[in-house]
Amino acid sequence: MRTLDERGCGRQTDILPRSFVWDPIMAHSAALSPLAPKSYPDLPDIEGVSFSTAAAGIRYKGRTDVMLALLAKGTQVAGVFTKSKCPSAPVDWCRARLKGGKARALVVNSGNANAFTGKTGAKSTKLTAEISAKATGAPMGEIFLASTGVIGEPLDATKFDGVLAKLVKDAKPHGMLDASKAIMTTDTFPKVATAKALIDGVEVTINGMAKGAGMIAPDMATMLSFIFTDAPIAADALQAMLSKGVGPSFNSITVDSDTSTSDTLMIFATGAAAQRGAPKIKLASDKRLSDFKKALDGILLDLAHQVVRDGEGCRKFVEITVEGAANAKAAKRIALSIANSPLVKTAVAGEDANWGRIVAAVGKAGEKADRDGLAIWFGDIRVAHKGLRDPSYDEANTSAYMKGEKIDIRVDVGVGGKGRATVWTCDLTKEYIAINGDYRS
Amino acid sequence: MRTLDERGCGRQTDILPRSFVWDPIMAHSAALSPLAPKSYPDLPDIEGVSFSTAAAGIRYKGRTDVMLALLAKGTQVAGVFTKSKCPSAPVDWCRARLKGGKARALVVNSGNANAFTGKTGAKSTKLTAEISAKATGAPMGEIFLASTGVIGEPLDATKFDGVLAKLVKDAKPHGMLDASKAIMTTDTFPKVATAKALIDGVEVTINGMAKGAGMIAPDMATMLSFIFTDAPIAADALQAMLSKGVGPSFNSITVDSDTSTSDTLMIFATGAAAQRGAPKIKLASDKRLSDFKKALDGILLDLAHQVVRDGEGCRKFVEITVEGAANAKAAKRIALSIANSPLVKTAVAGEDANWGRIVAAVGKAGEKADRDGLAIWFGDIRVAHKGLRDPSYDEANTSAYMKGEKIDIRVDVGVGGKGRATVWTCDLTKEYIAINGDYRS
Question: Of these residues, B222, B259, B264, B425, which one is catalytic?
Answer without folding.
Answer: B222
